[in-house]
Amino acid sequence: MGRSTVKLNVKFNQFKHSRWASLAPLGLTIVATLTPETVRGMCLIIAWGVSVWIIYDTEFAKGPADASPKITKSKRIMRTVSASGVLFVVAVAVFAGANGIERRIFAKVTIPAGQDKPIAAQAPKQPPSGPTENSNVSDSIATEVRRAKTPVEFSFQSSGEKKQRISSSVFPTFIEVEPAPTGVQDADLPKDVAVNGGTITVLRFGQGYMLFDTHGVPIGMPIRGRILGYTEQPRRSVPPAVSATKPTNPPAPAPALPLPMSQECAPGANCAMSTGQQGGITAGTINLLPPEPKITWSLNSHNVQNGVTVTSILLSVDHSMEAPAFMATCDLPCKTVNVELMTGGLSTNLLSWSDNPNLAGFELLQPRPLGAGVYVLWSIESLDANLFRVLDVQKAKAGELTLRQPL
């Protein structure tokens, strides 16, 4: 037993070196456990290289100073390589262990309560009565939504554009972009994120899409990530069917009586005559106009962003509208900030009325006509921090469009 202890001490003493030299690999290893995956790997590689250099200068590699004959250089290198293999295994184990711990910790992270306010605000169909009610509802729903939803994977190739739109089946509020991974929530936007090949910018989250700036990375570079916080797209409401009750015994029409031939005409003029005519048009021009479309709208969301209240509504018409232009009446001064078409791209003029700040509107330039049942997401913002309500939505008259102020 005594001999084994002495032999172990002799082997251990062969690795003696300056204590200051050991601070470099030890410090790099500690930093590696606290940094993202890419930086962690670089720190461990540097720590491994410094450790190999230290071992090369120890008694284990070059032998005792009084050894005879002296250790050859090739033997010294072989001893260093064998020790460096053990250190490499240790570095890999530290790298894998730190990654595993990081993933488990990140999986337990919940979205901050303030971030979940847009999610909770879409649940009620009526606007909240005050700020206190809105915050209480959002805080109670935030944890439930975060735990119930599963991540939605996304992957696309960079187009090199400053505004690259990526469609999704949900309304994102919190995403994670690889390879770091880097978390991005709605309150952080816009935010730069490092990816393979450069840096992209997450510009905006919207109903069914995400907007990125990818001009900083090569075209065709794959970009991957996960949507961790989101809400489902609103269900399209179907207008209630109109029913009518048919009378069981309709009254029989009265028998038609022959009418005498009549004519009122100036002497020498050409006249049209009819005998016993009931209804119809004998002569003239017929102008038939389509009926006014019926506008159906409902509250989609109601929340506070950057100190102002933003209300989003969904609207549609029951039949095709050749010149779609709409006007909303608010109980406080308001303005239109965004218009989105659920079926794709569009071009609009945002309208305002100088004589009435409580009106906001927009004119749809493209596509035209607006088809029946096509849903439009219309975002209206208050001009101050006071909560407001949308009281009515109606078609903007053609004469009023001359007052528009494109925003």
Helix and strand arrangement:
Blueprint (H helix, E strand, L loop, with lengths): L1 H12 L5 H14 L4 H20 L2 H4 L10 H35 L9 H5 L9 H18 L3 E6 L6 E4 L2 E8 L4 E4 L5 E5 L2 E9 L2 E5 L8 E11 L62 E11 L2 E10 L7 E6 L3 E8 L5 E6 L6 E8 L9 E7 L7 E6 L12
Antiparallel strand pairs: 1-8, 2-7, 3-4, 3-8, 5-6, 6-7, 9-10, 10-15, 11-14, 11-16, 12-15, 13-14
Helix pairs in contact: 2-3, 3-5
Describe this structure in words.
The protein is of the alpha+beta class and 407 residues long. The chain has 7 helices and 16 strands. It has helices spanning 2-13, 19-32, 37-56, 59-62, 73-107, 117-121, 131-148, and strands at 152-157, 164-167, 170-177, 182-185, 191-195, 198-206, 209-213, 222-232, 295-305, 308-317, 325-330, 334-341, 347-352, 359-366, 376-382, 390-395. The strands form 4 sheets. The chain has a 4-stranded antiparallel sheet with strand order 1-8-3-4, with no helix packed on it. The N and C termini lie far apart (89 Å).
Outline:
With 407 residues, the protein is α+β, with helices and mostly antiparallel strands. It has seven helices and 16 strands.
* Series of secondary-structure elements, N-terminal to C-terminal: HHHHHHHEEEEEEEEEEEEEEEE
- Kindly report the spatial arrangement of strands forming the biggest sheet: 1-8-3-4
Reported by name, the CATH topology of the largest domain is Immunoglobulin-like
Strand content: 25-35%
Radius of gyration: 38 Å
Q: Work out the number of β strands.
A: 16
Which whole number gives the mean pLDDT? 74
Which overall shape is indicated by the principal axes computed on the Cα atoms?
rod-shaped
Taking pLDDT < 50 over at least 5 consecutive residues as the criterion, the unreliable ranges are: 1-10, 109-148, 241-247, 402-407
Largest sheet: 4 strands, antiparallel
**CATH architecture verdict of the largest domain:** Sandwich
Terminal CA distance? 89 Å
- Report the structural category: alpha+beta
Count of folded domains = 4
What percentage of residues falls in helices of 4 or more residues? 25-40%
DSSP helix count? 7
